[in-house]
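Figure 3 (text version): structure tokens given as input.
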């Protein structure tokens, strides 16, 4: 996620609360597999396959276009503002 573009709408949290969380600063962040908020710039987290549709929908509906979903194998963005 790119917090500089995050609008704090929380749409991502509504779609995929297992992956995204709003912090006290009003911005959304990804969470690690053990539910820890990852606040460092450029933080990434693996998305379990059963949650991929929810995360894809989060990226599609994000008003800030700040969610980037990339394949692990080659880092190509498959969902988000830079997806081809």
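Below: residues designed for each position.
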């Amino acid at each position: 996620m790119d917090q500089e573009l995050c609008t704090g709408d929380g749409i991502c949290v509504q779609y995929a609360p297992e992956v995204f969380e709003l912090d006290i600063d009003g911005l959304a962040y990804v969470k690690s597999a053990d539910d820890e908020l990852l606040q460092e710039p450029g933080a990434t987290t693996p998305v379990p396959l059963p949650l991929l549709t929810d995360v894809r929908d989060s990226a599609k509906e994000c008003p800030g276009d700040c969610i980037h979903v990339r394949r692990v194998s080659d880092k190509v963005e498959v969902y988000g503002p830079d997806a081809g």
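The longest strand covers residues 28-31.
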